[in-house]
Amino acid sequence: MQLGLSVSDSDVSSFTPLVVLELADDTKAEAITWLLNRIRDKQKNGGAELLVDQLLFPAQDGQKSNPNVFVVGSTLQRLLKGAEDVGLFKEFQDGIMRGFTYANRESFKDFYDGEGFLSDAECQYIIKHELDTLRAKNEEHVPGYPKVKLYPGKSVVRRLQSKGVLVQYFPLHNKEDLKRLSFSWYKKIKLSFQPLDDIRHYFGEGLALYFGFLEYFTFALVPMALIGIPYYLFDWEDYDKYVLFAVFNLVWSTVFLEVWKRCSATFAYGWGTLSRKKAFEEPRAGFHGALGFNPITGREEPVYPSSKRQLRIYLVSVPFVLLCLYLSFYVMMVYFDMENWAISVYNENPNFGTGILLFVPSIIYAVVIEIMNLLYRYAFNFVNCFASLFYIAFVMQDMVLLRQSLATLLITSQILNQVMEAFLPYWLQRRRNKKVHKRMRRVMGDKELPLLEQVQLETEMNTYLGTFDDYLEQFLLFGYVSLFSCVYPLAAVLVVLNNITEVYSDAFKMCHVFKRPFSEPAANIGVWQLAFETMSIIAVVTNCALIGLSSQVKAYFPESETQMILIVVAIEHVLLAFKFILAFVIPDVPKDIQVKLAKLEFDSLEALKKRVSTHLYMCTYLQHANRKCDHLYDRPCQKVLHC
To answer: Which residue in 641, 624, 640 sits closest to 632, CA to CA?
Structure first.
């Protein structure tokens, strides 16, 4: 990363602006002065030792702009020391990823003079870490705000956020790097892999890992799609033939997830996050409670009584969960009533219009599901999306309706997601950008103020809330494919097409719709790995049940349905056992990376032994010197040197 850019040409102590920090426009002057001094102060005095400068925006349309917008940067030396503080791993001269230390910086590969050694995302992550760990000292409250109490040792920035003094802080886009990344990523439509290393350098490991998973999932679906197309064309009306497809589906879902673990480990090792220790997290900005003692950190901090938390769970959360589940099932039953009505209308007067009417209830239900997902946000997506499909498959046992509902849900949800995630936000953001651009040009004329304009634009952009929604979408698509694709083989084809457009739309929205997010170091996809594995286990049960419902299987047991059920359950257990054996046989981490990790651990133990040996030797030497001194002067000597 180049550190030669300046905030303004007239600024003698120019620096590269990396992070924007916006305070409320009515923030007290003494609070601003205090915060800026804490950011600029030396580390030994409890400061962040960062560079910060104020941006002054001209009044626009007679309205005064917020004067409390600042840009934060750092010297290269401070960033390198910060890299050691946050535990960054970098490639050593021997090719092994090791924890970076400022003292041994020259021994790391590609260090040279330090320029370009740290990526943009790493520099901004370091600054965020330093701001987040800026801790209160002896202050009882924020200057100018007697009611905003400060707790010794707690994060100042988090406290200011929770009280609305700090509006936001976010990393600034690098226009040149963004232009290069956009060109190699999504501006040219091409059949090639994504530039994951470039994405990681610009956005960090968390986002790069998501796009790596999206790419891997898309390629892994290709065999399912290739088998599904002829299966759909030639064997569609013969539902007995989906047994083989269901078995292939089960094997595919297991191999898919196990091989992804290996790919994930390879990415994480190359990016230096596989062995990286997770920093202790500060309480979130909105957390509040009475001041208490934290036995882990040894500091006083706000605590919330466990009894109150349990009361909120059982008196608020649980009733809300039950209410939402009731609404989900109620909407589902309304959908079935609409479906029966449409079928009855078609049966009375079969024509083109009534044929189209058959698809209307499913389309309406798919739209309602998307709306309810937005309202439920995180909790009930699985129930909301799959409840009707399970009901159709195992209660109604109507495979034609199941196929129609699955196809309609897939197509409608994909169209709505593309519109809501990328196109609509981009259109709204483009309108805002034009207004800001016109205001700036009208006020400043032909003066060149690219930084002011850029900060003004990015300040008003939407905030990216993380990869949760992106992974959730892929999780639901994986569910559609693994649970029910045996009755609708084109499901994999539709998901492949969706994911190809998803790569471009997600790349576009990250570059132009949202503020640049801070890097989130990640070694894997976290809890989503468990979620996908759980879905694959449910898929075994679902597909075995669908096989048991097929007329081909029922024909073998015309007089004993109980025997058929027992055999299907036995097959299910065998497949589950095969799945777990396969998961055990395939190593999560490739062999070469295992060797490198073992070598790193061995070197660390050897270094620790050397330090302990040196320490013991010095202790022995000093003790001997002290005894000799006592004997020489026949009296106890002053023990200036001691172990």
So the answer is: 624
